[in-house]
Automatic annotation (TrEMBL):
PROSITE patterns cross-referenced by the UniProt entry: 2FE2S_FER_2, 4FE4S_FER_1, 4FE4S_FER_2
Name of the protein this chain belongs to: Fumarate reductase iron-sulfur subunit
Region (Disordered): 349-368
Species lineage: Bacteria, Bacillati, Cyanobacteriota, Cyanophyceae, Synechococcales
Catalytic reaction annotation: a menaquinone + succinate = a menaquinol + fumarate
Domain 2Fe-2S ferredoxin-type positions: 5-89
Family designation: Belongs to the succinate dehydrogenase/fumarate reductase iron-sulfur protein family.
Gene3D superfamilies, per the entry: 3.10.20.30, Alpha-helical ferredoxin (1.10.1060.10), Chlorophyll a/b binding protein domain (1.10.3460.10)
Domain 4Fe-4S ferredoxin-type as annotated: residue spans: 166-194
Organism: uncultured Synechococcales cyanobacterium
GO MF annotations, alphabetized: 2 iron, 2 sulfur cluster binding; 3 iron, 4 sulfur cluster binding; 4 iron, 4 sulfur cluster binding; electron transfer activity; metal ion binding; succinate dehydrogenase (quinone) activity
Comment on bound cofactor: Binds 1 [2Fe-2S] cluster. Binds 1 [3Fe-4S] cluster.
Top-rank EC class of the record's enzyme: oxidoreductase
């Protein structure tokens, strides 16, 4: 099939331009195969990175049809199908879409060629065409010291041993091939030059859960520093979506936040307070009492006078526009919301990552209880437990009535005995 490739080309510090190439390809060809053919057969000046051609080295990351991906992983057929699905979805979502009207179809030879757009990764300056300068990406990785620290430990004569369970904790984060796709799509990196990026934080978490590492506390403290660390993440989910190796950096960031929150009190910092107070208020009222939220998070419960004063202009504007809630009504279903939060907290505290040594290394009073002791008696939530208990009680009473009325036990009554 013939495909039109639109390549966003650029020379360092110059304006980009779009160059088109038409090639005859097999639908199963990877985008990297196509770029190679363009380079070898049509334009030797086209620059892009590649190495293994097998989703291992992470060199060929670029934006393909608008999102960062590995050129050696995606193929032409998949890309065209993805594009068609997006176009269809957009058409459905466009307001005022009327039922399709029969229109005369153009002759097959005049149909436009399917198009694939290729551009350099985002959040990094372009050196040439699809090649970007990844110096900051590597620098940010270096900043989290992505290697096991054994400074304070006696080095064994041969090697540090790990159990299979300890090793399994490294599987997901260990899959990172440092391709840069997550960094390229990260909203937090785009707006803040301080944020170290999803790749670095995923790697930091990998060292935090590594049983051989002895710098857990200092690593967590480093990741807890303002918007450079975990609190800079906007939770946009892009990194999880584009990562070709399913490292799920956002999940690792969330786990790291969990470890930090276990160790910190509400007064530690505004970021920590924000998370703890939000959960606390939602548990109390089913949704957030914004008046108390502001005072507790920004005003640190009247400990931070400047914070309290900073709320006054906003409070006055809200009052003026009639948006200041005078009273707080708990939401209907507060009990269910609370049950859900408690169930998630229970499951999180029982997850393999928090049952690790890293938690037992914690200086706080977090209790790592054995997993089987954390299972609720009925179902997964206190709400389900209550409901299941009621059903069991109703069933028991129904059986009792049936036996009293028939003077037979249930199974004899059914004719089974
Ligand atoms: S986390 Fe995923 S997307 Fe990010 S650098 Fe590693 S492999 Fe690439
Ligand atoms: S979820 Fe956080 S780390 Fe991931 S891309 Fe979005 S802002 Fe960046
Ligand atoms: S060339 Fe190595 S990952 Fe694509």
């Amino acid at each position: 099939m013939q495909v039109l490739f639109k390549v966003i080309r650029q020379n360092s510090n110059k304006s980009p331009w779009v160059q088109t190439y038409t090639i005859d390809v097999n639908p199963s060809s990877t985008i990297l195969d196509c770029l190679n053919r363009i380079k070898w057969e049509q334009d030797g000046s086209l620059a892009f990175r590649k190495n293994c051609r097998n989703t291992i080295c992470g060199s060929c990351s670029m934006r393909i049809n608008g999102r960062s991906a590995l050129a050696c992983k995606e193929n032409v057929a998949q890309e065209l199908a993805r594009l068609a699905a997006i176009t269809e979805q957009r058409a459905e979502q466009t307001p005022g879409n009327f039922p399709a009207v029969e229109v005369p179809q153009p002759e097959p030879q005049s149909l436009p060629l399917p198009e694939i757009t290729v551009a350099p990764m985002g959040n990094m300056p372009v050196l040439k065409d699809l090649v970007v300068d990844m110096a900051k990406f590597w620098g940010n990785l270096q900043a989290v010291e992505p290697y096991i620290s054994t400074a304070a430990r006696a080095i064994p004569e041969r090697e540090f041993l790990q159990t299979p369970v300890e090793r399994a904790k490294l599987d997901q984060t260990g899959n990172c091939i440092l391709c840069g796709a997550c960094y390229s799509e990260c909203n937090a990196v785009e707006v803040s030059s301080e944020f170290v990026g999803p790749h670095a934080l995923a790697k930091a978490y990998r060292t935090v859960v590594d049983s051989r590492d002895d710098a857990t506390e200092s690593r967590l403290e480093k990741s807890n520093q303002g918007i450079a660390g975990v609190w800079g993440c906007t939770r946009c989910f892009n990194c999880n979506t584009v990562c070709p190796m399913e490292v799920a950096p956002l999940d690792q960031i969330n786990r790291m936040k969990g470890e930090i929150l276990e160790r910190q009190t509400e007064t530690a910092s505004r970021s920590v307070r924000h998370r703890k107070v939000m959960i606390d208020l939602v548990k109390q009222g089913g949704w957030i009492d914004e008046r108390r939220f502001g005072l507790r998070v920004v005003g640190n419960n009247f400990r931070d006078l400047r914070g309290v004063l900073s709320l006054i202009p906003l409070g006055l504007r809200m009052l003026q526009r009639g948006k200041f809630p005078e009273t707080f009504e708990p939401s209907p279903g507060t009990q269910e919301v609370r049950s859900l939060i408690e169930s998630v907290q229970l499951l999180e505290s029982a997850s393999p990552s928090s049952m690790t040594e890293t938690v037992s290394k914690s200086p706080t009073s977090f209790k790592a209880e054995p997993y089987d002791q954390l299972q609720p008696k009925f179902g997964w939530t206190p709400y389900a437990e209550l409901t299941n208990g009621r059903f069991a009680m109703i069933g028991f009473v129904a059986l009792l009535i049936q036996e009293l009325l028939t003077r037979q036990d249930f199974f004899t009554w059914l004719g089974l005995w």
